[in-house]
Design goal:
- This protein has 2 domains: 283 residues, 3-Layer(aba) Sandwich (Aminopeptidase), CATH 3.40.630.10; 129 residues, Aminopeptidase i, Domain 2.
- Helix content is 29%, strand content 27%.
- The chain has 11 helices and 20 strands.
- The two termini are 30 Å apart.
- The protein binds zinc ion.
- Zinc ion (ZN) binds next to helix 6.
Length: 434
Amino acid sequence: MTIPDQTRAQAQDLLNFIDASPSPWHAVQSVVQRLLAQGYKELKEAERWNLMQGGRYFVVRGGASVIAFRLGQRALAETGFRMIGAHTDSPGLRLKTHTAQASDGVVRLGVEVYGGPILATFTDRDLSLAGRVNIRTADGFTTRLLKFDTPQVRLPNLAIHMNREVNEQGLKLNKQTELPLIFGMASDKQNAREQFLGHVASTLDVNIDDILTYELNVFDTQPGAFWGAEQEFIADSQLDNLASCHAALTAMLSSEDASATNICAFFDHEEVGSESATGAGGSFAQDVIKRIANALGLDAEAQHCMLAQSFFISADMAHAYHPNFPNAYEPSHRVMVNAGPVIKTNANQRYATNADTAARFMTLCEAAGVPVQHYTHRTDLGCGSTIGPIIASRLGIASVDVGCPMWAMHSLRESAGVMDHGHMIAAMQAAFRS
Ligand code: ZN
């Protein structure tokens, strides 16, 4: 397999993007930094919008969802928009409000399980904490992002001598009693809460009493890596779904101005069902699209014309065939790593794809010169879902669900193919041009 230099560089850029984004708030920060560097202007939801023809803008809701767009060269009512959506959150562990607990000589941090991670993959890793902290100010509070670069917490396995069946039974962890993370030694002088919050306060250089609230995510400090005989694979945390965010953003920022308005929409809370003010089930996408249309002077009739000509690509990762577990897959729908983007179809509308939208994506891949694959889940297994059907039903626009093939979805260390990421960017560039 010959991997072009540009494809290798795109994969490296993805790993850098993920490693700078250990929480959904950091992911949005990473997206915003790239948008600002390319001249995109921030719009505030609380202010009136005045949009310039051909302008480039973005809007953040709730710190962990962002929608960026660039206005097309042709009238919106004539072309509709081309939107690519993905999610910024990943399944894992989140610190509880009263997280620190001292017992048996150690301080542990209590966690909640966010979404559906493979919990066993959190054991024996060099874990740390990242997220946001609200600090009291003279007139209210301010939000600060926090990321500890060094390992801070750990979930050590129980030795096999006390868990003799682990290789036959699999590693099972009670979510309440066996997931708290070891943080430090209990101190006679300080209680556990002071020890933890003091650590946060000194890192942010604030007073411990001024810390009002926090949302902190557990992440793996190991950076992303290439692996394999020809270094044709990548491994990192959060490939689901920061790989899709990165592909869509890269496609929009690296392609020429298009005739249709291009939109990248990245949402928080997909892993917990998307039903929130900032999730895909909320009003964010609809509000932004309506405000764009209003700012450009489209009347109600023109807005319907716009929607009827729009196209939405929901990008989320797909399950690559794993040769050690052939029975887990539908035999006629095995999708392979490094064999191209995947169109995901489910008759019960767990995916938004239909024959028309799949055909449209296939022609985009053909235009981009990239291969395409088709995935359907085993009929006797429950199928996952994503933001595709949610956005499709909220907006009523033609939609397709696609994604790059990957192994170990929802592991703390996922893997995927170098070629697929480059192929997906090319297909998305073609979508924005179309
Ligand atoms: Zn996902």
